[in-house]
Q: What sequence folds into this?
């Protein structure tokens, strides 16, 4: 009787060994690149909320400044501005900056893309965002800084322009 169910002899060649999944370097490279890029983009555009008491618009900020005798601090920014977001995250969200600004200034954040801010933007010429402008209560520029600045430099700027730190003229 012929054995039709005989098994073929196992070959010892490479095709007989079980296949391991191959490590696809480029698939993992691009997947890692995507994850890191998304994390970086989130970090660049993340700006935590802060406890600075912002004025609603320039007219109300100027009224508050005149009534309180405090200088105004204008922060010109844009939604698309990455250095502005970094400054919002590292400077404006700092507790020391918040307390100093709330105690000694009338702050106003101005979106440079807002059509209702066109008059203010034409009054205070600026070349870059972020721009920080400190004015007296009437709107005369005391100091203007273009570009992002760190917390230490920002606190020095505030100290130079705090009403109690300025010498009073007789």
A:
């Amino acid at each position: 009787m012929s054995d039709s169910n005989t098994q073929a002899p196992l070959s010892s060649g490479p095709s007989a060994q079980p296949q391991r999944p191959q490590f696809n370097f480029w698939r993992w490279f691009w997947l890692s690149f995507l994850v890191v890029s998304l994390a970086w983009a989130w970090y660049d555009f993340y700006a935590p909320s802060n406890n600075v008491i912002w004025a609603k618009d320039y007219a109300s900020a100027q009224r508050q400044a005149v009534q309180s005798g405090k200088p105004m601090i204008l922060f010109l920014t844009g939604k698309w501005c990455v250095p502005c977001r970094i400054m919002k995250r590292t400077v404006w969200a700092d507790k020391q900056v918040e307390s100093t600004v709330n105690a000694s200034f009338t702050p106003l954040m101005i979106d440079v893309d807002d059509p209702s801010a066109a008059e203010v933007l034409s009054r205070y010429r600026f070349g870059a965002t972020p721009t920080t402008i400190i004015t007296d209560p009437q709107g005369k520029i005391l100091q203007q800084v273009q570009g992002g600045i760190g917390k230490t430099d920002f606190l020095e700027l505030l100290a130079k322009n705090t009403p109690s730190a300025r010498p009073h003229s007789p």
Summary: The first helix runs from residue 25 to 45.
